[in-house]
Amino acid sequence: MTKSASFSLLRIMALLAPAVFCLQAGRTLAQTQETQAIEVTAKKYEYSPAPIHIKRGTKVQLKITAADHDHGFKIAALPDGAVPGATPGLVFVSAQDCWQLKKGETTTIEFVAQTEGKYTFRCCHTCGLGHRGMKGQIVVDQ
After folding, report:
1. Which residues of 93-103 are buried (b: 16+ CB within 10 A; e: fewer)?
2. Spatial distance between the Cα atoms of 111 and 49, rounded to a whole number of angstroms
3. Which of these, 132, 111, 105, lies nearest to 42 by C-alpha position?
4. Where are the domains of the chain?
5. pLDDT attached to residue 83
6. Which has the higher per-residue pLDDT, 23 or 98?
7. Residue pLDDT, tens place only, 2-52
8. C-alpha span between 84 and 98 (Å, rounded)
9. Which CATH architecture has domain 34-141?
10. Beta bridge partners of residue 104, listed in sequence order
11. Taking the model in full, what pTM does it have?
12. Tally of CB atoms within 10 A around 50
């Protein structure tokens, strides 16, 4: 290898090293970001706690347990009042239209809260006379 080619190779390596370091650091940060686990109870016509406050950028595990009988959980990826087609504010690991919550079992719903706003959730499994009023809210704060 000529002296000129060797110098060029060293120059390229010196220019690429910071980029490789940044990519690796970003990967490590994503892998080490902790997940916030939140215990939620679904019972006759209510979710508890409600509202649920989360910081923007947080990875969340909602661990929802149906206490009295089967319920459901439905939430939109867009904040309340958002324009349809906007970028999702909640990014789910496994999005579903309606998560079924079986009595006595814990269902885990995972997502990243990317956009500030209020996200109303409701029961999507008919559970009795007060079913329509069974709702809660996730508030994503700065």
Report:
1. eeeeeebebee
2. 18
3. 105
4. 1-32, 34-141
5. 94
6. 98
7. 555 454 544 444 444 444 334 443 433 344 468 999 999 999 999 999 899
8. 19
9. Sandwich (2.60)
10. none
11. 0.76
12. 14
